[in-house]
Design goal:
- Helices cover 31% and strands 23% of the residues.
- It is α/β, with parallel strands linked by helices.
- The N and C termini lie far apart (44 Å).
- Strands 14-13-12-11-7-10-9-8-15 form a nine-stranded mixed beta sheet. A six-stranded parallel beta sheet has the order 3-2-1-4-5-6, sandwiched between helices.
- Strand 9 and strand 10 form a beta hairpin.
- Helix 4 runs antiparallel to helix 9 and helix 6 crosses helix 9.
- It is built from nine helices and 15 strands.
- The protein folds into two domains: 130 residues, NAD(P)-binding Rossmann-like Domain (Rossmann fold, 3-Layer(aba) Sandwich), CATH 3.40.50; 177 residues, Dihydrodipicolinate Reductase, domain 2.
Length: 352
């Protein structure tokens, strides 16, 4: 049990606030949700019956009893709301992607340092079970020298969601900011900053106003990381494909945590985050004449670790698991990807 409960306000109670933040705040005794910004209903009371439902994020920012503001609103509001909350003395959790532009990321990072408050960007898919498994495989060098890494976030969603802000032509909408930020962050965790970026970005839906497909190459000295997402993938292939000079690792399926959260299940119990056995990855390697072809059990996913870390940072001065500077690099690569698409060229990675 955690001894210090952090008074927390949730700003926004749509998909993100309701399913990706509230359940973990509910089940973590280190947090106490005291206010929720929810304009059109009071559904937050189902998980946080003691919380006050308010209609303006400033009522969270201006509450002297609240220490942490969780910003789970459309991307275009991240910068303004985070800035106001930081200036009001709050630590902030910001749903990914961090902000639309690196200039805004730089401003918020500088402000957080000035007011001595923390920024946590919710790159929760660092705790996907399959990604955790891949980190272990690479750390053990089971594939030898990595030659190619490919990661997908595919789905079949051929119709534009007219009520969805992600499909509207506003800053930080579209699939690259939405799903690409996950894949880019994972690649950065594994490999660090690339030397260069190349991107093919499209709007494949006939009536799409934003990008709904991308194919990105991140170039490293001895291999390439390939990141892809599309909305016309009716029959998904592998989610991860890794090739090394000793063999391959192929992984299909997707971490089950989102599906469970959307069903209203709470992230508790020893079986939480366990993947279906049929989706476990296949490792096929040849090492010193020894052939090994085996199924690798997927580690359990654990999004709860994000908020465990937030609490430990704020109460015990632990190291941040997701640093805002890392989330800023994700945005920088997205900017360079759009520049690559526009110029049809490989773009060297630069910080600015």
């Amino acid at each position: 049990m955690k001894e210090t409960a952090i008074n927390t306000g949730i700003i926004g109670y749509g998909l993100s606030g309701r399913y990706f933040h509230a359940p973990f705040l509910k089940t973590n005794p280190g947090f106490r949700v005291t206010k929720v910004v929810e304009r059109h209903a009071q559904s937050a009371l189902e998980l946080s019956p003691a919380a006050e439902i308010v209609d303006d994020y400033r009522k969270v920012a201006d509450d002297p009893e609240i220490d942490l503001a969780v910003i789970a609103v459309p991307n275009i509001f991240h910068y303004t709301m985070a800035k106001d909350c930081l200036q009001a003395g709050k630590h902030v959790v910001i749903e990914k992607p961090f902000v639309p532009y690196t200039k805004e990321a730089d401003d918020l990072i500088a402000l957080s340092q000035k007011v001595n408050r923390k920024i946590f960007v919710y790159h929760n898919r660092r705790w996907d079970g399959d990604f955790r498994t891949i980190r272990d495989i690479l750390s053990q060098k089971l594939l030898g020298n990595l030659l190619e890494y490919e990661a997908h976030f595919d789905r079949f969603s051929p119709e534009r969601k007219r009520a969805a802000w992600r499909d509207e032509p506003v800053p930080a909408s579209g699939v690259l900011y939405d799903l690409g930020s996950h894949l880019i962050d994972q690649a950065l965790v594994l490999f660090g900053k690339p030397g260069a970026v190349f991107a093919d970005i499209k709007a494949q839906r006939i009536d799409s106003k934003v990008d709904d497909y991308f194919h990105i190459h991140l170039y490293y000295p001895h291999f390439t990381a390939i990141l892809k997402a599309g909305v016309f993938v009716k029959e998904p292939g592998p989610r991860y494909i890794l090739y090394g000079n000793k063999g391959s690792f192929i992984k299909k399926g997707i971490d089950p945590q989102e599906e469970l959260l959307r069903k209203g299940l709470m992230p508790v119990g020893e079986h939480w985050g366990r993947e279906y056995p049929e989706n476990h990855g296949l490792l096929n390697i040849s090492d010193n004449g020894i052939e090994t072809r085996e199924t690798v059990d997927t580690e359990s996913g654990n999004y709860a670790a994000f908020y465990d870390n937030v609490h430990d940072v704020l109460t015990s001065d632990a190291e941040q698991a997701v640093k805002p500077e890392e989330a800023r690099t994700v945005i920088r690569i997205i900017e360079l990807a759009f520049k690559s698409e526009k110029t049809k060229s490989i773009i060297p990675f630069t910080e600015r």
